Amino acid sequence: MSKLHVSTTVNGDTVEFLCDPRETLLDCLRDKLNLTGAKEGCGTGDCGACSVTVDGRLVCSCLVLGVEADGKSIETVEGIADGDILHPLQKKFIEHAALQCGICTPGILVAAKSLLEKNPNPTEEETRYWLAGNLCRCTGYDKIIRAVMETAEELREAS
Amino acid sequence: MALDDRKSEFTFVGTRPDRPDGLDKVTGRAKFGADMSAPGMLHGAILRSPHAHARIVKIDTSKAEAHKDVKAVVTRADFADVPFKPGLEGEFWNVLENVMAGEKALYDGHAVAAVAASSALAARDALKLIEVEYEVLPHVTDVDKAMAPDAPVIREGAADYSVPEGMHPNVVRYHESGHGDVEAGFAEADLIIEDSFVTEATHQGYIEPHACLGMLGNDGKGELWCTTQGHWIAQKTCAALLGIETSQLRVTASEIGGGFGGKTTVFIEPVALALSRKANRPVKIVMTRSEVFRATGPTASASMDVKIGMKKDGTISAAQGVFRLQGGAFPGAPGDMTAMCAFAPYNLTNVKQIGYDVMSNRPKQAAYRAPGAPMGAFAVESVIDELCKKLGLDPVDVRLKNAAHEGTKASYGPRYERIGLVETLEAAKAHPHYTAPLKPGQGRGISCGFWFNHGGETSVSLALSEDGSAQLMVGTPDIGGSRASMALMAAEVLGIPYENIRVTIADTATLGYNDVSHGSRVTYASGLATIKAAKHAVEKLCERAAAKWDIPVEAVKWENGCAVPSGPNAGDFDPMPLADITADMGRTGGPISGHFEATPEGAGVSFGTHIVDAEVDPETGKTSITRYTVIQDAGKAIHPTYVEGQFQGGAAQGIGWALNEEYIYGEDGRLQNSIFLDYRIPVASDLPMIDTVIVEVPNPGHPFGVRGVGETGIVPPLAAIANAVSNAAGVRMKQLPMSPPRILAALKDNNG
């Protein structure tokens, strides 16, 4: 099967790659663009470790085909920080120890950032349901939820 | 110079700094197992048996080998001839047989062949070109059925010396221990309850699937990158399975995306190396989630009978238990651990426990956080709860009355040193959670839990740099923030800032052998070794200062990061900071390093007490956990935030095990729920905040008093939640998970 040419934008950069029609966006990000921040935990859209945004919409990149990225704008964990300045969520995750092994962290940061862009003042329940598609096996979610809600509070105070 | 080995006042230990690898892990920069690639790399894929039990009549790989994208195909013939031995004596054979099937496929998902191809898609496609002829055999997946006389035999001769005569060949190890006279004890009881309990197999559920990248040349030299809890065991095992010298294989541990015991052995690593040897190119293998569920370590399932006698005042007069654990098609189910841990929290005059290790047609069980202990605690603590209820006694008071303490002869033999069980129970009693009002439909449960903790072979090096910073090399992969606790302990000894210490997880060529990151041993054993290595460096620093001052080394001591005269008689010198000594160390005797190697034996056993509130919906059978408190003895919390994290994580995994998670096998012996959609681990919206109380009863076996905290947290939840659910639903739940259909069935039976 011949490969297809894809032209897309990832974290603001224009990129091009050739992909097999069966390859997922996650495969393309990781294997063709060397953006290994998004992880494959399940390949079935159940764990959220591969979370990215496509034109602002939060998706599991393992459920999106690479060819579907053509002409879109993709944001990944690698694009969350502003150069060497960490996003408040990233700082808060480190401060709160909201990660243990860190494999789910990229996906959870992408998802949490997406939440706060849509809802700057989420309740605990809203935060828990928004992140219900991102599995973490280490933390029991306690410190993750606290980190997200505290970041939301700080961002509200700052704005 | 004087070095006090024990310490109770701390500068750095007990603080909560940012972890050294935090930046890497929040930016996506950290390299996990699947994140590595190499020039010329091929991709491997593994063909797996669709049958639970089948003789492999023939494997025809010719079509796959002829495919243009395929560079190598391997089967069992491509591995070393490892000798078979019974029980766990032949563990290399067991691992090899699990990594690549020999004469028989022993479970659904058992590897039978593998290919390496130029792309991951090509490798996956090439698997379809391999033709395997199977002769399907009768199978068994249930522990009680596997012990029955008519059960199909998984493998003759697998039982070791411990198994009594007359048992089914699937019973491969037997454990019996205890003390006193249980029959006499039961005769003294005012109430005896005897009951049976069942737990299903669960998976560790780490979010990162197994992944590795291996290169092995025909010269017998190799390199392996893999996600593992222990790269030395990976090195040793891969070398044995491939017939090469251990030291010729250098293994580097990637960042590890969770393990919980499941990454303490190898699965794909020897396969990648065998493919690489044949193709003469590096080979990467990454498991799919379905492969993780079908072919890597679930925990054992259990069937248990527990009998406990109690006097009216709450004294346990006798306790006995029989614990049958199913561990898949290989020896290793921790029936012995379950038996030894089950009654360990209690000071018992009469106790007896029996454990069975039973094989069945399931994947080879692997350790899962305090392996074996949670099941036994579920059975025992459920019976104690029922006794308390029938005798009208407070469950915390009864546990306090029977609690083990310093000097108690443990149910499994030794006498306890200083332990903290009583302190956790007193903290539970004093905690507002224990007396908070419950709403209608809610129930509260408590449970205690015990785990041994482990020391293990440990080797650490610390090297000082000219500018006074330090690099610390440890050999235990950092699963949950251990770089931070290592740096804190090194800073405490050296007296230099935490930030000036760089902690590296060294590869197998850099340090001596290190046991796996398991057994709650990292903060204890690597921590102890870090402290000793730092003290070794401090000794040398003191020697250099003594030489500069021209006084005896005995007249120099180390204080706040400086060499100082040990007293007024030693001379009048200004404190000499570490960086002043390292600045010219090349001219004063050479580089300054500290080392420590040992197998520390003082891990210090660990206890916890959990309080849980559960609410059961009688319409749907769904259980919600409404409040959860973990109380556990940490000995000394080096980085309290990460200690809390271990408590919370253990509780959350326990909640999953108690309420949702189970391996479901069909009549055909195939696993029916091999993706996260069907094997549902707790998600954020399933859980409440998890409150924690860190009790600190110092462990006499560690310079700073550390006890491991990783595992004990998963021991009480199954029982505590079962007790809460039983109180909420008004019916005793004896089988896990307490999924909605099981709760509805129990409610229906109860209302009869």
UniProtKB/TrEMBL annotation, chain A:
GO terms assigned for molecular function: 2 iron, 2 sulfur cluster binding; metal ion binding; oxidoreductase activity
Location of the 2Fe-2S ferredoxin-type domain: 4-80
Record carries keyword Iron: yes
Keywords for the protein's UniProt record, in alphabetical order: 2Fe-2S, Iron, Iron-sulfur, Metal-binding, Oxidoreductase
Record Pfam families: Fer2, Fer2_2
Gene3D superfamilies found in the cross-reference section: 3.10.20.30, [2Fe-2S]-binding domain
Protein name from the UniProt record: Ferredoxin
TrEMBL record, chain B:
InterPro entries: Ald_Oxase/Xan_DH_a/b, Ald_Oxase/Xan_DH_a/b_sf, Ald_Oxase/xanthine_DH-like, AldOxase/xan_DH_MoCoBD1, AldOxase/xan_DH_MoCoBD2, AldOxase/xan_DH_Mopterin-bd_sf
Entry keywords, A to Z: Molybdenum, Oxidoreductase
Coiled-coil features, chain-numbered ranges: none
GO molecular function, one term: iron ion binding
Pfam families: Ald_Xan_dh_C, MoCoBD_1, MoCoBD_2
Protein name: Oxidoreductase
Matching SUPFAM superfamilies: CO dehydrogenase molybdoprotein N-domain-like (SSF54665), Molybdenum cofactor-binding domain (SSF56003)
Keyword presence, Ion transport: no
Keyword Oxidoreductase included in the entry's annotation: yes
Taxonomic superkingdom: Bacteria
Domain Aldehyde oxidase/xanthine dehydrogenase a/b hammerhead: 27-138
